[in-house]
């Protein structure tokens, strides 16, 4: 795939990519249908109104959204707010109508904020606070849904606070409904077990649809419809008859109404904007979204959804990440996801009403787990212990009180840390710097501190720069750089490199980081050298011994790799931000380099990190066309239209059956794969091989390799290149 061949927007994009976008939209629809039902039910809304929200997000918002690949729909992060609004405003249908009024008012304000260009406000909130808020929401979701999974009547749970719901878990286990719980446990096994299975087929099939394919027949066999209480099955009712103007503004003069307006506005906007930013980083074509336009589009979608009875929508991170991984090209994938939901509600309501609620509860428990997984705590701790404290404080206060107080507590704690580290009060909110331009270069001298709370000022400055030019950032007068600024600086460095410019940091070596993490906060220190003492892990000790024995060079430190792999197929729809444990060997033919990378698939809480080892060959004289070679499987055949045409060789059926080969210039690829090279690949273990701009990467599997496996793959690469040299010599 050529990175310069950016998919067109609008009708031209439809004609160009409608097949791939329709396929991606269909697969996202399979994810969205059960999740939308579950989120709506957990939010105390009629279940089908979650589907209505996703339909509006696809059929309406997709046409004028500021982002191209995000999926608009209901989000688990708003469950607690929606359910709280319904309950505090009277409960039942009455509470639902009043909650819709608050959502509609929040949506109108959201449109105004987007029009006033407030799309960058998400930068004001520290990442540890945002992630703490989402982790707290995950715990709150789990506290209720575990009871639903066990077959407990939801009516007995109404009005209960999260801490009280956690205390009730042992009693619910004692009084569980065995048949209902069995289906719930089977659903959890599918959700968590399916991604662990080897093979691309299992990794690509959406777990929620497998849950439905298994649990619907089970509920039918067990005759749930006639033997279990009504609350154990999804109830759609008269969906099309219920659609109308449902919002009620009767409580607009009350504190409760405006409390929820603020909460809807704050969380909805924040989550949506953060998702847009995250999905931009996954876009294979690196298109930049317009956050202000997207905020207005989401606001308009929320207004229409609330008016008709639906939930608030956002740019939803898990479905958007999946959309990219399924091969989406344009905004039409979001449209198709809405279209297939519409078809489902027109034709398949009787089937949908066969879904057991325990299956939906399992899906939501999985969502809650992802939001508050132990890995979130570990990742936060790696950035710095102060980040973990802020993260945990936000969680505890949110679960104990409410969301707004929890976020406020996290931000206050962040300010406390900054003040304790000597940040002058004058620079807490004001970006202080000196700026000049000389000889076509920008010079920015940072004063005092660069923090989350004054980041907008720095962003406004750097947004005026031509990133093709050299930017010198002088930190010699700075005192503290926090995690939010470090993340922005790294992002800016990537943008500058991509544009053909560069960023040079002056005085950066005088800062002591709070942890070994490359984006950790750091404080000015006179005696600190620009190196971090690294305690080698058992793997690193093993690799160092390997390097000594084989006479390879070894570098354990993390280094940036975002642009090193960005145009290789392995990078498509994923991120490879860093590499570490680098081993280098110079043979007489090429430079062979082994590196541990983390393949980051998805974004934010939908993010999955896959550590693996890659062997790279470069600095050889032979000319090799761009191509991708991988072991052929069922999934590659099914999605050939998305990934690219399989180049087969009629004279080599064994090779053609064994490997899936693709490349932009088919004739060049065919000419490159000589008889000896094909025979070599036929008779050796399966290997993934990718080439871009005369650099080759090899990997056996998506996992970390032991030293012996690294040596084998390196030898494989050397033999491959030797055969290429033989071909070129024969040609000459």
Structure description:
The protein folds into three domains: 10-406, no CATH class; 425-524, STAS domain (Transcription Regulator spoIIAA), CATH 3.30.750; 538-731, no CATH class. By secondary structure, it is an alpha+beta fold. Strands 11, 12, 13, 14, 15, 16, 17, 18, 19 and 20 form a ten-stranded antiparallel β-sheet that branches. A four-stranded mixed β-sheet has the order 3-4-6-8, covered by helices on one side. The protein has a four-stranded mixed β-sheet with strand order 5-7-10-9. It has 30 helices and 20 strands. Residues 528-533 have low confidence and may be disordered. The protein is 53% helix and 14% strand.
Share of helix, binned? 40-55%
Strand content: 5-15%
| Average pLDDT rating | 89
Q: Determine the number of helices (DSSP H or I, runs of at least 4 residues).
A: 30
Structural class estimated from helices and strands: alpha+beta
Tell me the distance between the termini: 31 Å
Number of strands: 20
Shape: globular
Main sheet? 10 strands, antiparallel
Keywords:
alpha+beta; Transcription Regulator spoIIAA; 3 domains; 30 helices; globular
């Amino acid at each position: 795939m050529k990175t310069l061949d950016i998919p067109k927007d609008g009708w031209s994009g439809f004609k160009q990519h409608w097949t791939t976008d329709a396929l991606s939209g269909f697969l996202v629809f399979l994810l969205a249908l059960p999740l939308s039902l579950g989120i709506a039910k957990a939010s105390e809304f009629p279940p089908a109104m979650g589907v209505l929200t996703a339909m509006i997000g696809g059929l309406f918002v997709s046409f004028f959204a500021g982002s191209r690949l995000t999926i608009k729909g209901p989000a688990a992060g708003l469950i607690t707010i929606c359910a709280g609004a319904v309950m505090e405003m009277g409960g039942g249908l009455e509470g639902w109508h009043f909650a819709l009024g608050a959502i509609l008012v929040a949506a109108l304000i959201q449109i105004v904020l987007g029009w006033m260009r407030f799309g960058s406000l998400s930068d004001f909130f520290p990442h540890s606070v945002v992630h703490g808020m989402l982790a707290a929401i995950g715990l709150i979701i789990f506290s209720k849904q575990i009871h639903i999974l066990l077959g407990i009547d939801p009516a007995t749970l109404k009005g209960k606070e999260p801490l009280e719901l956690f205390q009730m878990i042992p009693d619910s286990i004692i009084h569980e409904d065995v048949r209902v719980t069995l289906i719930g446990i089977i659903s959890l096994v599918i959700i968590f077990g399916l991604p662990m299975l080897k093979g691309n087929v299992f990794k690509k099939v959406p777990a929620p649809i497998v849950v439905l394919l298994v649990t619907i027949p089970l509920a039918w066999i067990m005759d749930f419809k006639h033997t279990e209480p009504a609350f154990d099955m999804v109830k759609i009712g008269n969906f099309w008859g219920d659609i109308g103007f449902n919002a009620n503004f009767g409580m607009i003069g009350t504190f409760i109404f405006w409390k929820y307006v603020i909460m809807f506005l704050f969380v909805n906007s924040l989550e949506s904007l953060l998702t847009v930013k995250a999905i931009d980083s996954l876009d294979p074509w690196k298109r930049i979204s317009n956050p202000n336009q997207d905020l207005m589009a989401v606001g308009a979608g929320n207004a229409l959804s609330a008016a008709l009875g639906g939930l608030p929508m956002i740019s939803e991170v898990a479905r958007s990440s999946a959309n990219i991984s399924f091969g989406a090209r344009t905004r039409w994938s979001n449209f198709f996801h809405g279209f297939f939901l519409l078809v489902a509600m027109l034709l398949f309501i009787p089937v949908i009403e066969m879904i057991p609620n325990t299956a939906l509860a399992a899906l939501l428990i999985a969502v809650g787990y992802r939001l508050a997984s132990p890995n979130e705590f570990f990742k936060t701790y790696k950035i710095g212990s102060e980040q973990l404290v802020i993260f945990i404080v936000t969680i505890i206060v949110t679960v104990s009180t409410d969301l707004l107080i929890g976020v406020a507590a996290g931000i206050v704690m962040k300010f406390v840390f900054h003040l304790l580290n000597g940040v002058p009060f004058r620079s807490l909110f004001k970006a202080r710097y000196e700026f000049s331009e000389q000889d076509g270069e920008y010079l920015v001298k940072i004063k005092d501190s660069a923090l989350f709370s004054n980041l907008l000022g720095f962003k406004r400055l750097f947004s005026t720069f031509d990133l093709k030019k050299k930017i010198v950032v002088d930190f010699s007068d700075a005192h503290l750089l926090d995690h939010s600024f470090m993340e922005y600086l790294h992002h800016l460095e990537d943008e500058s490199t991509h544009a053909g410019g560069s960023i040079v940091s002056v005085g950066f070596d005088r800062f002591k980081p709070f942890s070994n993490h490359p984006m950790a906060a750091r404080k000015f220190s006179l005696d600190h050298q620009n190196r971090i003492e690294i305690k080698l892990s058992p793997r690193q000790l093993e690799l160092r011994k390997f390097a000594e024995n084989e006479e390879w060079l070894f570098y354990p430190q993390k280094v940036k790799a975002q642009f090193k792999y960005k145009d290789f197929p392995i990078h498509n729809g994923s991120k490879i931000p860093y590499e570490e444990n680098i081993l280098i060997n110079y043979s007489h033919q090429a430079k062979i380099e082994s590196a541990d990378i983390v393949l980051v698939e998805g974004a934010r809480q939908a993010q999955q990190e896959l550590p693996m080892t890659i062997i790279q060959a470069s600095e050889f004289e032979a000319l090799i066309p761009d191509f991708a070679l991988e072991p052929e499987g069922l999934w590659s055949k099914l999605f050939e239209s998305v990934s690219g045409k399989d180049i087969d060789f009629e004279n080599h059926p064994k090779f053609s059956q064994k490997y899936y080969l693709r490349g932009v210039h088919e004739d060049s690829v065919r000419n490159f794969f000589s008889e000896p090279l094909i025979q070599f690949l036929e008779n050796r273990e399966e290997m993934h091989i990718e080439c871009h701009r005369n650099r080759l990467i090899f990997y056996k599997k998506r996992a970390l390799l032991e030293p012996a496996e690294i040596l084998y793959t390196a030898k494989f690469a050397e033999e491959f290149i030797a055969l290429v040299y033989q071909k070129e010599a024969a040609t000459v």
